[in-house]
Design brief:
This protein is of the alpha/beta class. Helix content is 39%, strand content 14%.
Length: 229
């Protein structure tokens, strides 16, 4: 028997990953702002500061573009370039992460299910539609359209209110310590950290569960007592 009455999931990096042609979007961004391309996506990613900032997606990428422009001795407007890149990405080009579909199906058998994503509806709904998530979830919260995003409690409260489930009876599944694990803890939920790297440390955030893949999610659903027992 599932110890949880509700299972909430993060979207990007947890339930899905991008499959679109990033190189095409990269080239389209340069064409949009009217400058000759330099560098490539593979050179941009290492120049970014940690995981994406859901509060400033454009600014997060602009920092990387500014650094890449310096390396190539080019003068550009990094914000304009970043804005064009985000607009060129096909947000509906996604696929489930390993084990995600089975995790969703398993959760639905014994619990209410929901999605809490920090992205806005405009960027995230194409992913939800492409994966058929609307039919597999009881509620979807686009925190990017709320006054407060994860790790604030508001997105979690919205989801649990829609499901009529208390925080103590729910678990949140996500790949970010800063936004997902910390947010769940603040809102009173248990947390599953989907660790992006098997060697990654929890940095003191202390998730209730740590998994390297959602293929192992049944261990969470089948555990009858307290995770720390």
């Amino acid at each position: 028997m599932n110890r949880y009455e509700a299972v909430l999931f993060d979207l990007d990096g947890t339930l899905c990953r991008q499959t679109g042609d990033v190189t095409a979007a990269y080239e389209a961004a340069f064409e949009s702002v009217g400058i000759d391309p330099f560098g490539e996506p593979g050179a941009l990613w290492p120049l970014l500061d940690g995981p994406p900032d859901p509060d400033d997606h454009v600014g997060y990428l602009a920092t990387g573009f500014a650094r890449l422009a310096t390396i190539h001795d080019r003068r550009v407007d990094p914000v304009a370039l970043s804005t064009a890149f985000v607009a060129a990405v096909d947000h509906g080009a996604v696929e489930f992460t390993p084990g995600a579909e089975a995790a969703l199906d398993g959760a639905r058998e014994t619990a209410r299910t929901g999605l809490v994503t920090n992205g806005p509806r405009s960027r995230q709904s194409p992913k939800v539609e492409a994966l058929g998530l609307a039919e597999r979830l009881d509620t979807v919260v686009y925190a990017g359209d709320l006054p407060r995003r994860k790790p604030h409690v508001e997105p979690f409260d919205r989801a649990l209110g829609a499901l009529d489930v208390a925080p103590a009876d729910a678990v949140y599944v996500g790949d970010s310590l800063k936004y997902d694990v910390a947010g769940a803890f603040t809102a009173g939920l248990d947390s599953v950290w989907l660790r992006p790297d098997p060697d990654a440390d929890d940095e003191g955030y202390r998730p209730t569960w740590t998994l390297d893949s959602l293929d192992a999610f049944d261990t969470v659903l089948e555990y009858p007592g307290e995770a720390g027992d």
